[in-house]
Amino acid sequence: MRPGRPVGVRRRGVVAIVNAYSNAWPVLFPEHGAGRKHLRPMVLEPWQWSIVKQHPAEFVRGCIESDGCRHRRLVAGRNYPAYSFTNHSEDILLLFMWACGLIDLRPRRANRVTVSIARRADVATLDRLLGDDRAGDVLLRTSN
Fold first, then answer.
1. How confident is the prediction for the chain on average, in pLDDT?
2. Mapped to the 3 state alphabet, what secondary structure does 30-74 carry?
3. Is CATH 3.10.28.10 correct for 35-142?
């Protein structure tokens, strides 16, 4: 990514910490900037739009893995699995919902900062996308 530039790698057990410095990072990652993300516009550059359009499932997966969770919903005393994604940036929430639509998920706003995905077919799609180990973990916890 940066030919001829050194990259630092430190190992701590099974973790590798990678350091790289460049004044060009804002060009590659324009979303990283001064101030709080939820107080400034979060807009994808055209090249980022292209990547998300080509790989919406990976974008959704990354959002859920960073700021989301799989949980249970109690409806009439019964447990139902669901996913939530929380972010204080309206722009990021809209990007997440747009990407969900690209993979035929039907997200709904739970409140001002949370998007919920609770339809059975949508939860099954996300279970496949994120890995079955999450589904088993929640099913074990909700069976009590």
1. 85
2. CCCCCCCHHHCCCCCCHHHHHHHHHCHHHHHHHHHHHHEEEEEEE
3. yes
